[in-house]
Write a structure and sequence with these properties.
Number of strands: 9
Radius of gyration: 21 Å
CATH class of the largest domain: Mainly Alpha
Largest sheet: 4 strands, antiparallel
Shape: globular
CATH topology of the largest domain: Butyryl-Coa Dehydrogenase, subunit A, domain 1
Strand content: 15-25%
Helix content: 40-55%
Distance between the termini: 28 Å
Number of helices: 8
CATH superfamily of the largest domain: Acyl-CoA dehydrogenase/oxidase, N-terminal domain
């Protein structure tokens, strides 16, 4: 099997690498992460102009219609920054979820603004800490005369402060997990950033938030199986991003072992240092 990059993929890789060097220099990126200012609107805007938001979607919806491998090449380079912000959460995962779950009318209404960066749709899925799967969804959706009322708390939401809307999982009165879009400015929504080592993560509370029936994804709110289909297409991109980040750390470490001199020789010549690099 030939795993070498195509000419087009090499070009994608170069463009992404140049973007990281120009837009996310190490000193600036360090300050953003230190101050927890990881949502930088100008980065999202430039990424949208290049075509990185929703890039696996068909062109009819504003995407670039590229393959998973093409997209992974780009995100591996973005991970070397690592470039912060909702490029994955909104531009990949939410984009795929909307594509898989929604009606054609909803796709045409929701996906072009997402791909252009005009809307940032952030997933808010699990309520329980340290749980995953349908059982982690505790947010309740109750019927009213004109639509629904939603109550619940999503404890770990990445890029919450960047969201123009949330793609939420909630449990209906029948006990089914459904998915819906909620405007981030709706009354009753409280976003509380986590403290400590968490970066770009917040708790999002929904207190008697009014939701219109048209905000359900698809004709009936889709299902957990729909999310899993979207994840199957999205997680390889997240993995590529993380590979880029770890490769950058490894490269920096190896460079340091070649240039840091102790007792008259580079520390990379010491066996114990070599062991750490290999591990």
């Amino acid at each position: 099997m030939d795993l070498s990059l195509t000419e087009t993929q090499e070009e994608f890789k170069k463009v992404a690498a140049d973007f990281v060097k120009a837009e996310v220099p190490a000193h600036q990126m360090t300050q953003w992460y230190k101050n927890k200012q990881t949502y930088q609107p100008q980065l999202v805007k430039k990424a949208a102009e290049i075509g990185w938001l929703g890039m696996m979607l068909p062109e009819a919806y504003g995407g670039s219609d590229v393959s998973t491998m093409d997209c992974a090449v780009v995100f591996e380079e973005l991970g070397r920054g690592p470039v912060p912000g909702p490029l994955f959460t909104s531009g990949i995962l939410s984009a795929q979820m909307i594509f898989e779950a929604c009606t054609e009318e909803q796709r045409k209404a929701l996906l072009p603004p997402l791909c252009s960066g005009a809307s940032i749709v952030v997933p808010a899925i699990a309520d329980k800490a340290a749980y995953w799967g349908p059982e982690a969804v505790e947010t309740r959706l109750s019927k009213t005369a004109g639509g629904y009322i939603m109550n619940g708390t999503k404890r770990f939401v990445f890029d919450a402060q960047a969201a123009t809307s949330f793609l939420c999982a909630a449990r209906s009165e029948e006990g089914k997990v459904v998915f819906l879009l909620v405007d981030a400015k709706s009354p009753g929504i409280t976003i509380t950033p986590h403290v400590g080592f968490f970066i770009s993560v917040a708790e999002v509370r929904f207190d008697k938030v009014v939701v219109a029936p048209t905000n359900l994804l698809g004709s009936s709110g889709a299902s957990w199986a729909t999310l899993e289909t979207a994840l199957d297409k999205s997680l390889p991109i997240l993995s590529a991003y993380q590979v880029g980040a770890t490769q950058e750390v490894f490269d920096m470490t190896c460079e340091y072992t070649r240039t840091r001199v102790v007792f008259g020789q580079p520390i990379g010549r010491f066996q114990r240092v070599q062991d750490h690099c290999v591990d």
